[in-house]
Known about the structure:
This protein is an alpha/beta fold. The protein has one domain (5-189): Cytidine Deaminase, domain 2, CATH 3.40.140.10. It is built from 7 helices and 5 strands. A 5-stranded mixed beta sheet has the order 2-1-3-4-5, sandwiched between helices. Helix 3 (95-104) links the parallel strand 3 (85-91) and strand 4. It is globular. It starts with a helix and ends in a 9-residue tail after the last helix. Zinc ion binds at residues 62, 64, 93-94, 96-97.
Amino acid sequence: MPHEPGRVAARYLSVIEEEIVPLTEAGVVAGNKLFGAAILKKDDLSLVVAASNRERENPLLHGEVAALNAFFAIPATARPAARECLFLATHEPCSLCLSAITWAGFDNFTYLFAYEDTRDAFSIPHDLAILREVFGVEGGAYRRDNAFWSGRALSELVAAAPEEERRALAERQGALAKVYARLSETYQAKKGGSGIALS
Ligand SMILES: [Zn+2]
């Protein structure tokens, strides 16, 4: 990675704060889950696409899949190669999205909230349940480094940042946790009758 961990973490937090959260605010009001994703260029950390979950249209339109669809909607001549891009997810990708990121050719992803947060703080237990029931993977222990990609928590980037940057980054993470707690309240209040199989 050509950038320092603290700089990348700060940029990821900005993309979530400024690009993904506004999309998600509208999404949860429409009854969608609070998951979002973005794709950035590795060389200058510029944003390529951002998206949020649109399960009310189609239960496969997770935030990550919506971002990948937006990415591949860019004409091939104008679209960076997946290998030249960073993949950012607000929540640790589920098994569907792990596979989608793999098939799309990305060699990395970073997430803000872990599976346990999704289950405990956001009351959406399906990621861990599908890994256990379908794949026999306990505790969400998929291979975070494999032949296709490396997956990391944003908090690992923050931990690797210089000490003088760490506190401000952690504060921004904490502020986002509050924003997502509010988004979660909206989603949970609206999910009854949403028609989503795994709500
Ligand atoms: Zn997913």
